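Record format v2
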Amino acid sequence: MKGIFAVLLCGASCVCQGQTYPDSVMMERIYATSFVDGEAYKNLRYLTKEIGHRIAGSPQAGEAVQWSRSLMQELPFDRVYLQDVKVPYWERGAKEEAFILPTREPLKVLALGGSVATPAGGLEAEVIEVELLSELRRYGDAVAGKIVFVNKPWDESIVETGVAYGLNSSQRSRGPAEAAKLGAVAYLFRSLSSSPDDDFPHTGGTRYVKGIDSIPALAISAVAANRLSEVLKENPKTRIHIKNASRWNGMVDTHNVIAEWTGSEKPDEIITIGGHIDSWDVGEGAHDNGTGTMGTLDAIRTLMKLGYKPKHTIRLVFYMNEENGVHGATRYGEAARDKKERLVAAIESDAGGFAPRGFDIKSSAEKVAWIQQHWKPLFEQKFWVSRFFAGSPGVDSGVWGQHFPNTMMFNFRPDPHRYFDIHHTDKDVFEAVDRRELQSGVAALASLLYLLDQQIDEIGQK
Amino acid sequence: MKGIFAVLLCGASCVCQGQTYPDSVMMERIYATSFVDGEAYKNLRYLTKEIGHRIAGSPQAGEAVQWSRSLMQELPFDRVYLQDVKVPYWERGAKEEAFILPTREPLKVLALGGSVATPAGGLEAEVIEVELLSELRRYGDAVAGKIVFVNKPWDESIVETGVAYGLNSSQRSRGPAEAAKLGAVAYLFRSLSSSPDDDFPHTGGTRYVKGIDSIPALAISAVAANRLSEVLKENPKTRIHIKNASRWNGMVDTHNVIAEWTGSEKPDEIITIGGHIDSWDVGEGAHDNGTGTMGTLDAIRTLMKLGYKPKHTIRLVFYMNEENGVHGATRYGEAARDKKERLVAAIESDAGGFAPRGFDIKSSAEKVAWIQQHWKPLFEQKFWVSRFFAGSPGVDSGVWGQHFPNTMMFNFRPDPHRYFDIHHTDKDVFEAVDRRELQSGVAALASLLYLLDQQIDEIGQK
C-alpha cells in the first residue's frame, strides 16, 4: 500500500508541474486515491451519527449546514459561502400510532411529510381500501367520514426500482386531496417499498390543495397493509384508530452551502456538482442523501489531492429542502438566472451510495452519443461503470434547470436494487452504506468531473 | 401484481403452444418471473439456516447433497442423479486460539483449510514478519524455530476485488511449505480481506509439499495483523502463542448432484450450468456458494415455469469440494471425457449473489465479439447487465474444461465490491444476501441460458 501511495504522490506533483497524462491514467489515479485515501465514508459517519437526520428547518439541518461549510473551508476552494433560503419547517411530533379495533392490534405507520395532525386523542373510522385513487369514484358518498386506504403493491417485476417507485408515487402526493374531496377523514398509503416483507413504514412528501380540507395522511408498512387488507376482507366494517401529532412551524431561514474552485481558463463557465443536504426526519439520511453530499465533496477533494487545476469553475452545491419543497434548488436557479451565470454542466448525486453504474444524461442525442463513444470505454471494463444513456436530471438540477434549458446534466446512477428497501425509513442509516461502494462512486464522480472539465468544449462543438 | 401475473401465465401457456417471442420479450418474462415468483432466496434460507456451512466430507455436506437432489426431483427434469466423488475430509476441531506473550492479548485467528494441528497445548515462538515470502531468504537460519507472519495489506486501489485477491492468494497456499523449508514452526497469514478495518479472520485453502514438514497455518484478521505488527516493531523478540486442533479424516465418499433437462432437437449437445455445493466450515456459505447453486437451479426453474422447451440438453451440476481439492469437478470432467460427451457450453456461478454485472467469456475473440454485438444490447439498458468481456472460467469449469478446450465458458460476474469483505468468514451468512440482487442474478443466468440454447449453433458458425 505504501508503494502505491508513493506513486500517487509523484503523480500528483507531476500534474502540479503541468505534466499531462492520458485520461485513462488520470482515472486510475483518481480511483486509487478514492479507495485508499477517500474521506466520504468518514465524513458520512459524522453526518449520520453526530448530526443525524435533518429535515429542512430543523436544528439538525442547521447544524449540517454549518458543519458542511467548515468541511469545505478546510479544502483549497477559492470561495465558500451560504446562500439564503426560506423553507417550510414541518415537525413530526410525538410518535404516530395506529391499531385495528376492537382488538387494538397495532399497525406500523409513519406520517407522510407535510401531514396535518389528527385530533389530540386520534380518530376512529371505517376504512375504504382501493389500489388506485381512480377507483374511489365508484364509492361516491360512501367515502365521507371514512379513512381512504390506498393499497397498491410495489411492482416487483421491474428491474429498475426507480421506475417502479415512479409508477405509484403520485398516489402518495395526490392522495390526501383526492380523498378529502370525497369527504374522507384521513388517508392511509401503502409504503413505497421494494421489499414485500417490509414492516417499516416509508415516509415521503404529500401535498394538500387549496380549498380542499387537509386531512391526516400516513404511510403504512407493506406487512401492516397486507394485514389490514386481510382484516377488511373478513369484515369490511372494521374500524381503525390513528393518531398523529405532526405540525407546520411556518417558514424558517436556512441555506444552501456552496463552494467554488475557480477555473484557470474559463472561470465564468461553471460546472455545478452536488446533492441535497436535508433528509427526511427518520433514520439518518445516509443513502438519502448523505452519500450524495459527502460523495460529491470527496470527488472534488480527490482532484485537489491529485494536484489538479480545473479549467472551468467547479461549484459544489449542497441544496437545502429537496425532500419537502425544493426551495434550495429554486433559490439557486433564480439567483443564477438573475446573475446571468453560465452554468455549462451539472452533476447531481441523489440516488444512494451503492455501487456506481453510470450517469443518466440530459442533453442532445448527438452529445449523448459522443459521450458513449468517447467516455464510456474509459469507464466500462476497468471501472465497472457502463451506463451513459439519455435520461432525466436529478430533482434539484431539474428544478433550477428550468432556467437553464441548455445546461448538460448528469444524474448519477448507483445500483438500484437495494435503494427502495431503505428509502425514507429508519433503515437508512450509516451501516447500510458500504465503504468500497461509496468510494467507487466518488471516483466515478471525480472522473466524470475531470472529463467534463477537460473536454466539455469539445462536446460543445457537436 | 396480480395483473402482471396473469400476463405471465398467459405467456407461459403461449410458449407451451409453440409460439415464439422476440428475445427481448422472453427476457422480460424471465425477469418478471424471477423477481415476483423466484425461489432462490427461499431455498438459500433453507440451505444456510437449516443445513449451514458444509465443508466437503462433513455430515452437513452430505445433507446438502440429499436435499439438493430432492429439490431437483421436484422439478420436471428428465433425470436426477448423484455422481460419486471421493473427497478429503478436513475438520477444524476445537476453536483456534492465539495471543501475544506475556500479556495474553488475544489475536483473532482461524486455521487455514488443510492445516495440521499444533501440539495439544499449543506452541509458543518468536515471530518473523514479512510482506512477501521472497523476503524470507534474507533471514536465512534465523527463520528456524520461529513463526513466519506474512503481513501484506490488501491493495485497496484495485476496483475489481477479485484481482486484488489474486495478487496475494498464492502466498496463502505456498506459504506453509516455504516457511517450513527454512525451519519455521508455524505460518500466520494476514487475511485476504478488502476491508482495512476487518477483525474477522478469513480462511481459505493452503497446501503442503511432500518431503517438507507440514506446519500449522493460520489466518489472522487484518486488525489483529496490524496490532501484532505494531507490537513487533516495539519488541522484535515478542513471542506469541497459537493453538489449533484441526485434522484430516482421510478420504470420504460423497457426490456431485446432477439434473438433466433433455434437449428436444440436439439432446446429445449439453449446456452445463451450476456451481459448487460445498463451502468452508465458517459462516453459512451464503455468497460462497449458496447463491451460486440456488441461483442456477432457480434459473432453470424459471425457464420451466415459463413453459420453455430447450433444444439442447441442459445439465445442472452442483460440484462437490471446490474449496479444498476440486475433486467434484475433476470427477465430472473425467466421466464426461470417458463418455465422450459433447459439452458445448458451460455457465458457472461462484462469485457471490450480489447485483449481476455480466459474464466473463472463455472463447475465441470472434465469438466474444459476436456476443457483445448480439446479446449485450438485450441486457444492457433495461436489465443493467453489461459486462461481456473475454475472461477466465470459474474454478470448477476451468478444471473439467482441461478435457474440453473448445467448450464455450461463461463465468457469472456479480458486483465485486462487497464479496471479499465477507468471503470465507463468519460474515458469509444469509442476511448478507439481498433478495432483489439474487433474483436479478437468477434472471441474468436464465436469460443467458435461454440465449445460448437458442443461438449457440449460430455463434458456432463464426
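Chain A touches chain B at residues 1, 4, 31-32, 35-36, 153-161, 194-195, 355, 357, 380-384, 386-387, 389, 415-418, 421, 434-437, 440, 443 (CB under 8 Å).
The longest helix of chain A spans residues 435-460.
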